[in-house]
Amino acid sequence: MTEMLRAPAEVKYAEELDWLESVDDGPKPFSWRLSPRMVRLFVLGSERSDGLDREIPQKWFGDRSFVERAIVTLASDRGLLLIGDPGTGKSWLAELLAAAISRNSTLVVQGTAGTTEDHIKYSWNVSMVIAKGQSRDSMIPSPIMTAMEHGVIGRFEELTRSTSDVQDALISILSEKYVSIPELDDDNIVFAQPGFSIIATANSRDRGVNDLSSALKRRFNFVRIPVVTNKKSEAEIVRFRTVELLRRHNIDLELPPTLLDILLRSFADLRAAAASAQSDDGRLESALSTAEQIGVLEDAILHSNFFGDRTLKAETLAGSLVGSLARRTPEDLAILNKYWHGVVEPRSKKEGGEWQGFLEGGRQAIATLS
Amino acid sequence: MSTFGALRRQLDDAAETFAGSPGALSEILTGMVDDVDRALGERLEIFPVCHHSPASALAMARRLRDKQPQVIYLELCEDLRPLLDELRTCRLPVALQAFATELDGFPESWGPLSVVAPITEASAEYQAIAYALDTPGVELVLVDRSSDHVFQWHPREEPGRPAEEAALHGDAVGVEIGDLRPRFAELEEHLLHHGKVRHWSEWWDQYVEQPLAGADYDTYRQVMVLIGGLFRRLRPHDAAKLDRDEDRERHMWTRMREHLAATGADPERCLYVCGAFHAASRVEEFGLDAARTDFEISPRTATNWLYGLIPSSHSAIEAQFGLAPGSVSIAAATYDKAVSRGGVKPYTLKGQQKGRRPGTKPPAAPVAVADQLSEFLSKPAQRDPLDEAELLGWCVDIVRLARRNGYLSSTADAIAVYETSILLAGMRGRARPTLYDFQDAAVTCIEKDTVPGRRDVRRLCEIMLGGDRIGEVGYQSMPPLAQDVFERLAPLGYDMTKRAVHRVLLDLNADPELEPCSHLLWVLRRLMPEHAVRPIMGSRRLGERSVQESWDVALGHHQRALIELGYEGVTVEQVLEQRLRRSVWEPKATAADALQAVEEAILFLGGRRFTDELGARAVELLAAERSVDDAPDVLRRVRRLLAHYRATEPALPEWCERFVTTGYAQYCTLLPTAFVAEDVGVRQVAAMLGFLASMESLALSLGCDRAQLELAVRQSHPETPGKIALLWAARFQLGVLTIGELRERCAELLANPLVVPSFPQYLSGFVQALEAAPVLTPFVVEVISGAFARLPDEVLLPWLPTLIQTLREEAPELVPVLIREAGRTFPATLTAVDAWVPPWTAPSGPGGAEVATATGAGAAGGPVTGLLAAHPAAADALAALLGCEGGWKTLTPAGSAPGHDASGGSPEVAALVARHPATVDAVAALLCGGAAV
């Protein structure tokens, strides 16, 4: 296989999935490649009590019951809608589930304001239509239609970003499980094969941009993914994702635990500040999610790797944090300035260590941006 | 070779395999089996239970029917025994309560002490209680330490109560039979993690409750003791010292041996019901045949314990014992289902039944203990097959309930919930979905992005499964006070046991017989928590009587508070009297507190004797007070009380007179110090002056001397602006300072730019002084107006907020007086403002008295003049009394009177009046009207 910047989960974990498939003796619904229990094990990792010969690492961090509910939904008649704040790992969970169940997580439709019904159903190759007329050959099936034809999981990212009429195109797909192609005289219905289902994600912050119709809501089971606030699991997630990114960039760089701790504590502080703020002006625009932390860390690592001395320093981390979070001037900068002088400064005096560098780096970054 | 030899060997092997050597692990594993061996080998049959475990309750019912024991020993505070008979009249869950306010031997800060032991229907202990109470000849003996010992054994350095909130239980210490939970957090976390469950109740349900559902008695006992032994062995080393579990076990065994020795009961016919944790006990006192030890049960303290039943609820139990929300309700539902499925008939308390006597059945020969554990531990649990009808019923019900709560759920959802429940259960390795699986499935399929109503699907599931059951204490089991309250409120025709808030309307004019009810409601309002009885309309204050009242009564909801009131007395009046008496005799009580107590005694209790007693105490407190912090409060209250007594009694009570004279002397003494002391505010000094000024005539008539006050004022040398203003006002009141001098001083202050910033404080002092010298009101208005007029904007504008703040904070009740006066002084219409001349700048003659005379001459000819002229005797007598010389002036018709007053006879004025007669007509009408009145 050619080299990929980011391999989809089924490619990345292909060997692991193969192995799981080989030892899986549980009942598998429809055409699933793994049984529900094995899917859970793939996502949440194995434990000694599972009695497997090898260890399966945990890939998604969160409550067990969310994963169980999601898997069970896919085995039932309904679609799965993962809803939550940005950066809570919805898409990652969707990808893992699709990879584990059908070994294909790439049948994705990205919901945007410009998404049309064609993106969900099918469109036509115009030149072929002119040359040969309308036929199955000149039809371009959408990822969802492809998923139906193959009996696998199709994904719909950011469902609420697409307009209501486009969303409603999913209703018949989820109910009748077929798409008719009225332009054709025969062979004009694509039936979904067993195993087909849809995993959609929606951002709870944008809810109301294009609210789902009741009819569509009814056809989805909602699983709400909360923001991770448990420090231990958050550290796990950040470390896990960062290591993966570093590997992707072929960067050999140590992630000092003290810096990870500084990052986590800063985010926890800023979240607490956002929660107690009275108005939007007192709140950073960023959702301060775990993904955002990963972004900050990645940015700092890349910066140190290419412009620094290949070690991650607190100054760089601070600069990257300010750079990523200061989106609005002057509001965000003012909040960060307040944080730096009200929290980081006393802490650097009290605890010293890396906090001092963090203080300096942050100050400089704020000064540069102001 | 003991019964469990094979199992021990197997566990030894396992320990060796996993830990590498048969060390600590082996000790724990085989130790657990030893525990089982010992507990089952005991002559006295031990029945291990776990709280809120339907399996325990069912096994208990079965065992009781089977064995028909004559004596039941129960792990419950021994002093709660008399309460158990009262359970008949209650609807469960209720809690047995021991309550103490008069402490002995405990730190005062712990009080009041309260111990609650909730009893639910789905519990093994209830089965035992119901069997014992309803079967003649059966004795129920509570053997655990008494409520007193609960606190005796409580570590002293910790506060005496747990912090958790439990709505119905208040902040009582909870005791429960069969508390079975890992004793440290890591173990519980480990069990939950590997059991793949969310909380302890679910773990218990999956790994113990369900496998034990159909188990026989031996298996049940062995498994329970095994788990008890496990938690007992896996606990921190110092736990034994802290939790006093072993002391409790010693206590229980000692009591049981004592009872057996005293009654000579046959141990074969006895049953000891205790938590599985205690069944695996290893104390030396364990067993009937244990050797005597030097364990002595310490005597109880002299704390006066009172006992009663209070209503409880599933949620209160969950909150108090840290269980997952809904777990007790789910346990109750499981129990109900098991009962309805048949197979075992549980005991219920239903009045005093004439059941058959026990003992007709010969005691079963003790059966040798067989090893049931090996099989239980090695085989997968026998689980119930899928109960399709039941699951379908749940699915349909939850959808219906969700619809009623605003969800757009339909039959399709019911189907989806059904399917999802089965899939979830399969994924979690259960053949049959548990209630927890069902709950998860319902949330997955029905819950969308928002919750449309007040309750979400998870909560709806709990409601559907029986919801939060709230107990009720029957009328007969209530303390006399609560019964008395219900009887006295009977005329209102409201079912006091209902938990809903009830609106009561009282028309006291139309139904004067409801007066006592209204009175009782006011007393309850004073004694009970805020929302128990709440007046919507009507008030009770001195000198007021409501014609109509409307109340929100929620006594059913606050049954616990009412029952706890019952611990304090037999009637609410008695409780109130005690509380008032206590409040005035507290070491920290002040004169203001005592006056408040007097006021409340008049309002709620009536009767001169008690109020006189409280009043006398108020005098004592006042005389002993060295601080004047409460002076404003004292002044307000004593004024109100004096007004009340003057209006209702022929003479003031003796204590009132003493209070006034004591207060006069006291405040005169403290006045000079208060004026200079930094920690005494202007408000306090003003209140003292107010007391001295307004009570002066009464005090003087009772023998006080005004010279005392004059001296006190002369000795006062305040330094702060507010107090200086007060002193000036006081001197004005005493006649030492004239209004002209006051005016002059204020003008000087305003003219001096160095003092101007402190002018608001002077102003605030003057405003406060109105308390003592109300005649100064026009002057204060004048000073404020002067300040507004004379100060430049740059000084005035930053001032205004301060001024408003000062007035609002320090003289809220005097502001209306000022505003009224300002309203009188300033013109009412915009046009009048132009021509308006402030009274204090109006050109006046040589003296104020002459102005008055001139005004009087101007008004000549009115009805008042007519009246005075017609009856000169009264005016003559007054003039003679005041020493006013000069005779009557001759009246001439208005307008033509010559004299020194130019304005009176000026033709311009006459012309003006003639041109605009309306004003004069209106004034005339007003004066005539006034005269008529």
From TrEMBL, chain A:
Pfam families: AAA_5. InterPro entries: ATPase_dyneun-rel_AAA (IPR011704), CbbQ/NirQ/NorQ/GpvN (IPR050764), P-loop_NTPase (IPR027417). Gene3D superfamilies: P-loop containing nucleotide triphosphate hydrolases. GO terms for molecular function: ATP binding; ATP hydrolysis activity. Residues 79-220 form the ATPase dynein-related AAA domain. It comes from the Bacteria. This is ATPase AAA. The lineage of its organism: Bacteria, Bacillati, Actinomycetota, Actinomycetes, Streptosporangiales.
Automatic annotation (TrEMBL), chain B:
Residues 346-365 are annotated as: Disordered. It comes from the Bacteria. Pfam families: DUF5682. InterPro entries: DUF5682. This is Uncharacterized protein. It comes from Nonomuraea cavernae.
